[in-house]
From TrEMBL:
Primary location: membrane
Keywords: Cell membrane, Disulfide bond, G-protein coupled receptor, Glycoprotein, Membrane, Receptor, Transducer, Transmembrane, Transmembrane helix
Bilayer topology: Multi-pass membrane protein
Name of the protein in its database record: Chemerin-like receptor 1
CDD domains according to UniProt: 7tmA_GPR1
Organism this protein belongs to: Sus scrofa (Pig)
């Protein structure tokens, strides 16, 4: 039984989902090289968490609670929610890598962590696709947009996107398992280890579904939408002055830059079933491409601040409003020195007292 477990452990350590790359035959120099690569990827994971949690929380707070509810803010709200949920689970993944790919958190969190990662990937790309289609219809077909572009219809689309993303991430809940050997546990995809042909078929199907549905089809859709906007909108000033066009375009480009290497290495990884010639390249490339993909979850809030002037204005106005309200509350409570109580604050306090 122990020999069987050891064989399975060595077999599945090649899969990116297990993220176990140190095989028994790996020499010390190669282990040192891969160790550096994995620590670099670990830095990317930590950077995504440190920047992404507060950034997406701010976007969720303002788009969900402070700003007027519009179709566009609804899209960005759900995009931030998808990233935020994923980042909440990222410390588990960081711990997994930091402990040399040992998973001590049990099978339930193994499944949940993989599911959340897939849910985030599909939900993000689906919402980006919806946003691109929304921009195209809004600018090219204004009559159709005015008739059907409502909050109610948008909520229906949001629900459909989340259900579809959950469906696409569902296989992680089914196949993800843990395997213990030599006091070490890995979290991997168990594609039915007793049947090599079934393992090969399932790995190919899930990988190509992920690439086609979660990357190629959305990429084609977004490319058509934005190219059509560029060529069909004759007056460039209309396009340039579009409130959200350049922000959305930057978000889409960031998604492509971050996720393209991940999908390329996922396809490349399929060759591991036939030969191990590129094994060392995959050992180094898969963790780095995964870290780059994770980094996308913290980029969107940064892009909003750097590119969208409207976001900057609304953000500053919201912060100023919060600070003003806080000052008013403290002033009314009598904890602020008298010089700070200007006439406007006194009037607000009198109104509050009258009520």
């Amino acid at each position: 039984m122990e020999d069987l477990e050891e064989t399975l452990f060595e077999e599945f350590e090649n899969y990116s989902y297990a993220l176990e790359y140190y095989s028994p035959g790996t020499d010390l120099e190669e282990k040192a090289h891969l160790g550096v690569v994995h620590w670099v990827s670990l830095v990317l994971y930590c950077l995504a968490f440190v920047l992404g949690i507060p950034g997406n929380a701010i976007v969720i707070w303002f788009t969900g609670f402070k700003w007027k509810k519009t179709v566009t803010t609804l899209w960005f709200l759900n995009l931030a929610i998808a990233d935020f949920i994923f980042l909440l689970f990222l410390p588990l993944y960081i711990s997994y890598v930091a402990m040399s790919f040992h998973w001590p958190f049990g099978i339930c969190l193994c499944k949940a962590n993989a599911f959340i990662a897939q849910l985030n990937m599909f939900a993000s790309v689906f919402f980006l696709t919806v946003i691109s289609l929304d921009r195209y219809i809004y600018l090219i077909h204004p009559v159709l947009s005015h008739r059907y572009r409502t909050l109610r219809n948008s909520l229906v689309i949001v629900i459909v996107v989340w259900l579809l993303a959950s469906l696409m991430g569902g296989p992680a809940l089914f196949f993800r398992e843990t395997l213990e050997s030599n006091n070490r546990t890995v979290c991997y995809n168990n594609f039915h280890e007793q049947d090599p042909d079934l393992v090969l078929m399932r790995h190919h199907v899930l990988t190509w579904v992920k690439v086609i549905v979660g990357y190629l089809f959305p990429l084609l859709t977004m490319s058509i939408c934005y190219l059509s906007l560029i060529f069909k909108v004759k007056k460039r000033s209309i396009l340039a002055s579009s409130k959200h066009f350049w922000t959305i375009l930057a978000v889409v480009l960031a998604f492509l830059i971050c996720w393209t290497p991940y999908h390329l290495f996922s396809i490349w990884e399929l060759t591991i079933h036939h030969n191990s010639y590129f094994h060392q390249v995959l050992q180094a490339g898969i963790p780095l491409s995964t870290g780059l993909a994770f980094l996308n979850s913290c980029l969107n809030p940064i892009l909003y601040v750097l590119i969208s002037k409207k976001f900057q204005v609304r953000f500053r106005a919201s912060v100023a409003e919060i600070l003003k309200y806080t000052l008013w509350e403290v002033s009314c409570s009598g904890t602020v020195s008298e010089p700070l109580r200007n006439s406007e604050t006194k009037n607000l306090c009198l109104l509050e007292t009258a009520q």
